[in-house]
Design a protein that fits this description.
The chain is of the alpha/beta class and about 350 residues long. The chain has helices spanning about 15-60, 65-75, 85-95, 100-105, 115-120, 125-140, 145-150, 155, 165-170, 170-180, 200-205, 210-215, 265-280, 300-305, 325-330, 335-345, and strands spanning about 160-165, 185, 220-230, 235-245, 250-260, 290-295, 310-320.
């Protein structure tokens, strides 16, 4: 009797759906197991660090005890990693930075040990660490993304754009929209000079789509560049159009290579009206506008925005020069980014 390969045997009805369900359950269980292992490791390190702190500060044990402890733990657990003198000192610093055990269990233990070291090494205050820890958890940042955001001073820039959102949007939506924008935006990844034209900036941002979306922040989905808007037989082109998945609205981004001028908001407001009338769905929130300029006077921008009926923000961008060589070599090529952008689903409607 001929034996057919297993893959060629016709499965019973409903088998495919059951298999998909099992795959999902297995993946979920593996993820939970990995998170549980990480949580137990982080909590163990915190407890060890707390014990070292207590014995050194309360019982007068000297610094040499860490070297002795590292030696004895390696003898007891020869195949285990993480018990070097350096890592034991990190455990002590970790416990010192997070003295509240409840917060460690509920929040901090959600992050891998590598993230903990980044927070310890790059930040000096508890409020900063708490903010970046929460952001890393919420947005599932890798360790490298966490480090880049800290080095890019994301906390100091978040919510700093000059806007009229408080006057033009309901409070709950206004607060979220304001926190979505930054000032200044950092375009370090662009291979253009500080005197780049608007078209050069736009070309560079689209070529480096991954980095641009990372700098914009979580929730932005790219719709298109030079998006055609036709009004009364005339054609107009929006520099960059996005849809924000959390705010549930379109976001029009206009680039100005020079200094901010109040008349720039007239053009931006026209685009917002056109998008609201031609693309916005009934369940979408009002379209937001973001004017990115090389330089802006804070008082002039505030004056211009205060009388504008459309929800808008004004922020500067900074082109700070090329990235360090190690980071340059780790970025995808322009061809990869262009392919990524071309293959990405758009939300134009």
């Amino acid at each position: 009797m001929t034996q057919h390969p297993i893959a060629l045997i016709t499965p019973p009805e409903g088998y495919a759906d059951w298999l998909d369900e099992l795959k999902h359950r297995i993946n979920s269980a593996q993820q939970r197991a990995a998170l549980a292992v990480n949580r137990e490791l982080v909590l163990l390190y915190w407890e060890m660090g707390r014990d070292i702190l207590v014995r050194q500060s309360g019982q007068g044990w000297g610094s040499k005890v860490i070297d002795r402890l590292a030696h004895d733990l390696r003898l007891a657990f020869p195949h285990a990693k993480g018990f070097s003198p350096r890592n034991l000192k990190y455990m002590r610093a970790f416990a010192d930075a997070w003295p509240d055990p409840a917060f460690v269990q509920q929040v901090v233990a959600q992050l891998p040990w590598g993230h903990q070291l980044t927070l310890l090494e790059k930040l000096s205050t508890a409020p900063q660490r708490i903010w970046y820890a929460n952001q890393a958890i919420q947005h599932n940042w890798s360790r490298s993304v966490l480090a880049l955001n800290i080095e890019g001073k994301l906390l100091e820039r978040t919510g700093n754009a000059i806007t009229n959102f408080e006057l033009r949007l309901p409070k709950a939506h206004s607060d979220l929209a304001r926190e979505t924008l930054k000032d200044p935006y950092r375009f370090d990844f662009l291979a253009v000079g500080r005197e780049a034209s608007e078209r050069e900036l736009e070309d560079g941002l689209v070529r480096h789509a991954t980095d641009f979306l990372l700098e914009l922040g979580a929730g932005f989905a790219f719709v298109g560049r030079q998006v055609l808007i036709e009004v009364a037989g005339e054609e107009f082109f929006i520099d960059l159009l996005f849809y924000h998945l959390h705010l549930r609205c379109y976001v029009v981004v206009e680039l100005k290579a020079g200094k901010f001028k109040p008349e720039h908001l007239g053009q931006l407001g026209f685009y917002l009206t056109a998008v609201n009338q031609q693309k916005k769905r009934a369940d979408d929130n009002p379209t937001l506008g973001l004017l990115l300029c090389k330089e802006r006077n804070k008082v002039v921008a505030e004056y211009a925005l205060s009388e504008n009926v459309q929800p808008m923000g004004v922020a500067e961008y900074k082109v700070l020069g090329p990235l360090p060589e190690p980071l340059q070599t780790s970025l995808p090529s322009i061809e990869q980014l262009e392919k990524e952008l071309a293959d990405a689903p758009t939300l134009a409607g």
